[in-house]
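Summary: Need help interpreting a holo structure output

Steps to reproduce:
1. Submit the protein chain below together with the SMILES for zinc ion.
2. Request a joint structure prediction with the ligand placed.
3. Inspect the structure token block that comes back.

Expected: a single structure record containing both the chain and the bound molecule.
Actual: see attached output.

Input attached:
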Amino acid sequence: MSAIGERVARFKISDPKPARCAACFCSADATTRFVDLDAHIDRGAIVEDGSGAVIDSIDELHLCENCVNNAAETLDYKPGLHQTHLRLNRELMRERDELRQENRILRQLVGEQ
Ligand SMILES: [Zn+2]
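--- attached output ---
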């Protein structure tokens, strides 16, 4: 396995979730997934406005799924493309079935005249 392959193989869903995304600083909620990029960083401290009290520090590279999706789209990878194609295919199949049914009815009407 290449050095890059080994590195990517170490990426995983963050468990437990970090308190914040290392890129956008969004807080972890119940539904947002995070990716653990297995890298130590020194992103600095999150301090409270006014008091300057340290709330948190970010020492590991965990990115929220929004940041990962945005980064992928920056590289022209389209995470939603498969879902879009599937939806369009289903719409086309439904329209085809409707047209077949209408064609069947029209043929019956023409045949009756
Ligand atoms: Zn983020």
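--- end attachment ---

Reviewer comment: The longest helix spans residues 81-112. The first strand starts at residue 12 and ends at 13.
Status: needs-info
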